[in-house]
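Hi C.,

You asked whether I'd gotten around to modeling the 50-residue construct. I have! Everything is below, sequence then structure, no commentary in between.
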Amino acid sequence: MADYYIKCVNENVDGDIAEVGYGSDVDKYVSDTRSKDAVISDIDDYPHKM
């Protein structure tokens, strides 16, 4: 199971992703936001199984 699900993205004026809205369940509700850099860090730190 995922730690959180990305629900939406907020873009800056240049059209780049600035923040993502996320939630802990597979539903339509956004619990909070995280910066793009924080999400990338979470992905990089996730233990990959190969």
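If it helps when you're writing up: Residues 5-45 form one domain.

Thanks,
B.
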